[in-house]
Amino acid sequence: MPRATLYVIPGSHPAMAVRRMLEYKGIEYRRVDMLPVVSHAVLFALRFPGTTVPSLRLDGEKLTGSRAISKALDRVRPEPPLFPSDPAERVAIEDAERWAEEVPQRAVRRILWQAFRRSPDSMRSYTEGARLGVPVGLAIKTAAPIFAAEFRMHGISDTRVRDDLAALPGMLKRIDDWIADGTLGGTTAADFQVAGSIRLAMTLDDLRPHIEGRPVGQHALRLIPDYPGRIPPVLPEAWLEPLRAASGGSA
Question: Residue 14, preceding bond cis, omega within 30 degrees?
């Protein structure tokens, strides 16, 4: 039985994707919760290859990033697989996994932090079940430096987030199309990668009505039924207009 320790930040969607991969594989793991920004110093001190979450210690091997972890999990526990054995099908899954990490994962992260800035008390709901080593209320009250660092590291601004929201309908359609043609809809690494981001997006009341009724929303709910956290409507109405237009004016 592989021995695993998973380092996460509460609410992290790539970390949630890896948690579900570990559970799908039947690999028991210990979870270590860390605060945003502080996590970089911790992982650097522990000599991981990167300083982002998720990071995983697996039978002595140190891995950083959901894509590196998904491949390692298939190597140490081939069944059930996260990647198909057929070469062409594997390329399609790897391409979808890469896109999911590079596009919706980053966009949803920026949208989330923008929403947190408008509703900082909502951060508490994402720490359900986490052991941070400090009182959650104190962490939230002293989070100003963390906000500044996160906005700087991820290039978060009003303009960038508004652009992310305008691009979100296209992302959702792409995933719906992959589900329709069978690329997604199973339990591959790409499925978990996509589901993590979409499921986090659905914790925002501003976004959930535009997602949950679509194939992409049902896919995310199937793979990740429970996701701690909720943010009430906080984003400007004008920013959400592209989503409403794509939904036919509903929600």
Answer: no
